[in-house]
Amino acid sequence: MERKIFQLGDIVQMKKQHPCGSNEMEIIRMGMDIRIKCVGCQHSVLIPRVKFEKNMKKVLRSTLPPETSLGTLD
Question: What φ, ψ does residue 46 adopt, rounded to 5°?
Answer without folding.
Answer: -105, 120
